[in-house]
Design brief:
alpha/beta; 9-stranded parallel sheet; 12 helices; 9 strands; globular
């Protein structure tokens, strides 16, 4: 059983929802990224999504775009991110870690090479924003051979036929984008989210998590009963953008706020 599957099973037994947290590798630097990963887990994060910096992160809002830029200025590479996971695994063998990124850096490394290295590092899954199922057969096969989950995105505009095709090709969990637009967007419509998540859940046994626009206790409360978990990114990345001063405390407080809201 994979770490992702085990995590969702354990949460389900405890009647809890998953808190999935996101930050960009190398923002503001690799050492801080590792420290914040450990802080997030200690305060209640169940799964860590690590953004892999790219020059054109088209699905991201300004907050995460700037994080990508800062990581690129630090010359952070995909190899650096894999090494970071190896370091993380020295202390944590339980928490799932997922890479979220865009095809170009992964294709440059090659599907077989990346997936082999990823498995050895202790990575659990990959979510490539701009890699539709039709263009990912190499990665699908390589991920399967190396025990990696291939997580898929579903948008509010995705029709039912497309949802079924995406779910058939996915593993780990489904990431439902709760709002139209880019990361950090506002105005989640809980009724619309529930309607779409119900459709997705009718087509797959995989857990469904909801992301985009979730940033505080109120937004968590609005969607916590609608899926198997939530993803929070921009709210955390914006704290990192403020600088290192008391950063660990700021991240700790935010994770505690989000995890507490999930439990109410």
């Amino acid at each position: 059983m994979s770490r992702i599957e085990s995590t969702f099973n354990n949460l389900r037994e405890q009647k809890k929802k998953a808190l999935v947290t996101y930050l960009v590798v190398g923002d503001p630097d690799l050492e801080t990224t590792l420290d914040l990963m450990e802080v997030m887990v200690s305060k209640g994060a169940d799964i860590l999504e690590l953004g892999i910096s790219f020059s054109d992160p088209m699905a991201e809002g300004p907050t995460i775009q700037h994080a990508h830029e800062r990581a690129l200025e630090n010359k952070t590479t995909l190899s650096d991110a894999l090494d970071l996971v190896t370091q993380f695994r020295k202390k944590d063998s339980i928490t799932p870690v997922v890479f979220m990124g865009y095809m170009n850096p992964f294709e440059a490394m090659g599907a077989d090479n990346f997936c082999s290295r990823a498995s050895k590092s202790g990575l659990d899954g990959i979510l490539l924003v701009d890699m539709p199922p039709e263009e990912s057969k190499d990665f699908t096969k390589a991920a399967s051979r190396n025990g990696l989950d291939l997580i898929r995105l579903i948008a509010p505009t995705t029709d039912e036929k497309r949802i079924k095709n995406i779910c058939t090709d996915a593993s780990g969990y489904i990431y439902y984008i709760s709002v139209k637009g880019v990361t950090g967007a506002n105005k989640i419509d809980p009724l619309e989210v529930k309607s779409k998540v119900d459709i997705i859940q009718s087509m797959t046994d995989l857990p469904v998590v909801v992301g985009f626009g979730i940033k505080d206790a109120d937004s968590v409360t609005s969607v916590r009963e609608l899926s198997d978990g939530i993803v929070v990114g921009s709210a955390l990345v914006s704290l990192i953008a403020e600088g290192k001063n008391q950063l660990s405390d700021k991240i700790s407080n935010k994770i505690e706020e989000l995890s507490s809201a999930l439990l109410k």
